[in-house]
Amino acid sequence: MDMSEAGRIAGLNLTHLSLFPMPNLNDIEGHLMAQDVVWVNAGSVANLLAVWRVHDLDEILRRVWAAGVVLAGVLAGSICWVRGRYD
Asked: With 84 labelled, which of 6, 22, 53, 71 sits at a CA distance of 20 to 30 A?
């Protein structure tokens, strides 16, 4: 069972933001502001943050977090929120 199926069974409405080959949403910030939680899966932290910066997602996510949206994830998705070497 994948996360989308598990979410549906739990009564959650999951959406997916893809950045490849280009963002699948026109208003990334508006979409993320409308979420309760932003979940980021595993990957390379350095690559993740580099791609986010290209799309201004690093700044968008900072505003989303400041607005009260929960930022979470696993592996790279969890440590990308830590202030440190990649800031």
From this structure: 22
Condensed to tens digits (0 to 9), the pLDDT of residues 3-29 reads 778 888 999 899 989 998 899 999 999
Burial-class residue 57 by CB neighbours within 10 Å (0-12, 13-18, 19+).
buried
83 pLDDT band (50/70/90 cuts)?
Answer: low
Residues 6+ apart with CB under 8 A from 67: 33
And the tokens for 42?
């595993």
Residue with token string 């979409």: 31
Phi (first) and psi of residue 11, to 5 degrees:
85, 20
71's CB contacts (< 8 A; 6+ apart) are 37, 38, 40, 61, 64, 65, 81
- Using CB atoms within 10 Å of the CB of residue 64, give its burial: 0 to 12 exposed, 13 to 18 middle, 19+ buried: buried
